[in-house]
Amino acid sequence: MVLAQLGGSISRALQQMSNATIIDEKVLNDCLNEITRALLQSDVQFKLVRDMQTNIKKIVNLDDLAAGHNKRKIIQQVKAFSIPIYWPIVGVCEAVFNELCTILDPGKPAFTPKKGKPSVVMFVGLQGSGKTTTCTKYAYYHQKKGYKPALVCADTFRAGAFDQLKQNATKAKIPFYGSYTESDPVRIAVEGVERFKKENCDLIIVDTSGRHKQEAALFEEMRQVSEATKPDLVLFVMDSSIGQAAFDQAQAFKQSVPVGAVIVTKMDGHAKGGGALSAVAATKSPVIFIGTGEHMDEFEIFDVKPFVSRLLGMGDWSGFMDKIQEVVPMDQQPELLQKLSEGNFTLRIMYEQFQSILKMGPIGQVFSMLPGFSQELMPKGQEKESQTKIKRYMTMMDSMTNEGKFILHKLTQNLLTELDSSNPKIMNESRIIRIARGCGRPIMDVMDMLEEYKRLAKVWSKMKGLKIPKKGDMSALSRNMNAQHMSKVLPPQMLKQIGGMGGLQSLMKQMGSSKDMMGMFGGGDK
Ligand SMILES: Nc1nc2c(ncn2[C@@H]2O[C@H](COP(=O)(O)OP(=O)(O)OP(=O)(O)O)[C@@H](O)[C@H]2O)c(=O)[nH]1
């Protein structure tokens, strides 16, 4: 399965899960099985896939969720009180995303050469993996960054290897060393490294001959080159279409030489995404670059998160996780909560929420996948229409502001704009006609917008009576938040999963410390 298909399969599996009304063990298992199948077909090693599935289940354990053991998920769920989102799906997506990122990130950065200080980098890999081409790409990349690279051809096995390197190096104006007559790769490697050290080159790249894991003699030769040149970094070059063999091959190299980083080549073709994951797992070294074509500059720094996003077929999933917080920015939550606690869900608040959703751009569409997020406002499969609808509502509300008609507040005698009033009754016929005229929309549209406002106001009215602390004191908020409030604002399915009112109460007891509760709102130190 090629990369794009893998992404498609995984996102389809997640989408199917999001279509389910209730996410129970079976729905979660079906989704994970689907993802597992897709990864296996993409040549991710079986063990890796199995571990990943177990880990995701641990993170998204629905039983745990009900019993309140899984704080992280609960934290996400409680955050959901800010907006009616069915959060567990985000949790599963995030877990899949994080698991893939974890596999690709072995936790230790690769060696980076320093300018002005001689470093030796040795390239190893299977025959035809693109090693020689990649050596030059790597040298050229660093040359552009101000390094002084040099190439040494220690591939005495393949006839024509030296010519190929010479040709590439000449094109890129990079000094090179090799021999048509010498057959000992160790000797050539040592001579080349010494020579370029004397010439003050700071990045000496040693290309070795391609080999297969069955070729014991060639592996021994590679080990000797490594011992003699003492490279600062051994780079394993792997063709992305190698398939299931990737793990074993990478491991065989790692067992002979201290592989410190991986470069995956031919990512431009019918690339299998799984190989990269397997190579990292086998070598416990990070992928640092990818080759995306035959040309010198078709070479990119490897970045885990965008790669996984691509793998999952979701433009920028990591960005989504960050942006999700924007729906109600953390620093604005106390203010917002204050207004809501007073039962003041105004058209202005609705306007600001719409603004946040639109700010999320196409990512906002992801919300429409999530059951619970205003089915009426964002029906599935009609994201574009929904966005247009939101924009239309906002235009109507703009017209309300511009008219600047004020309403006298019954109790405070303050003058409020239509946008700041939380009493839908004030929107009488003459006001509706005026707004419709002002924005050039039919009266029905204005009424439609006001219906949506009433619907949302009803959801938010459940927050009424919540004691809100002063701005910044989130822990006080958590102390004042009781299970009763929570039960009102959590979507019913979510409450059911937590174990109803009883489950919620015991959960809140367990999470009693203010530090934990602060975490629930994204505040405090984590
Ligand atoms: N499309 C594409 N082709 C690549 C890429 N990298 C290398 N190639 C091509 O792959 C083929 C093999 O590349 P080489 O650099 O000769 O491979 P090698 O690993 O040095 O080969 P041995 O010396 O036999 O081990 C060449 O035709 C390269 O042009 C890439 O990122 N994308």
Automatic annotation (TrEMBL):
Asked if the Swiss-Prot or TrEMBL record annotates the protein with the keyword rRNA-binding, the reply is no
Give the matching Pfam families: SRP54, SRP54_N, SRP_SPB
Q: Which residues form the SRP54-type proteins GTP-binding domain?
A: 286-299
Q: Which InterPro entries match?
A: AAA+_ATPase, P-loop_NTPase, Signal_recog_part_SRP54_M_sf, Signal_recog_particl_SRP54_hlx, Signal_recog_particle_SRP54_M, SRP/SRP_N, SRP54, SRP54_euk
Subcellular location, in the record's words?
Cytoplasm; Endoplasmic reticulum
Top-rank taxon of the source lineage equals Eukaryota
The keyword RNA-binding is assigned to this record: yes
Give the GO molecular function terms: 7S RNA binding; endoplasmic reticulum signal peptide binding; GTP binding; GTPase activity
Biological process terms in GO annotation: SRP-dependent cotranslational protein targeting to membrane, translocation
Give the reaction(s) catalysed.
GTP + H2O = GDP + phosphate + H(+)
Record keywords, A-Z: Cytoplasm, Endoplasmic reticulum, GTP-binding, Hydrolase, Nucleotide-binding, Ribonucleoprotein, RNA-binding, Signal recognition particle
- Cellular component per GO, a single term: signal recognition particle, endoplasmic reticulum targeting
Query: What's written under domain?
Result: The NG domain, also named G domain, is a special guanosine triphosphatase (GTPase) domain, which binds GTP and forms a guanosine 5'-triphosphate (GTP)-dependent complex with a homologous NG domain in the SRP receptor subunit SRPRA. The two NG domains undergo cooperative rearrangements upon their assembly, which culminate in the reciprocal activation of the GTPase activity of one another. SRP receptor compaction upon binding with cargo-loaded SRP and GTPase rearrangement drive SRP-mediated cotranslational protein translocation into the ER. The M domain binds the 7SL RNA in presence of SRP19 and binds the signal sequence of presecretory proteins.
Q: Subunit details for this protein?
A: Component of a signal recognition particle (SRP) complex that consists of a 7SL RNA molecule of 300 nucleotides and six protein subunits: SRP72, SRP68, SRP54, SRP19, SRP14 and SRP9.
Q: What does it do?
A: Component of the signal recognition particle (SRP) complex, a ribonucleoprotein complex that mediates the cotranslational targeting of secretory and membrane proteins to the endoplasmic reticulum (ER). As part of the SRP complex, associates with the SRP receptor (SR) component SRPRA to target secretory proteins to the endoplasmic reticulum membrane. Binds to the signal sequence of presecretory proteins when they emerge from the ribosomes. Displays basal GTPase activity, and stimulates reciprocal GTPase activation of the SR subunit SRPRA.
Query: What family does this chain come from, according to its entry?
Result: Belongs to the GTP-binding SRP family. SRP54 subfamily.
What protein name is recorded for this chain? Answer: Signal recognition particle 54 kDa protein
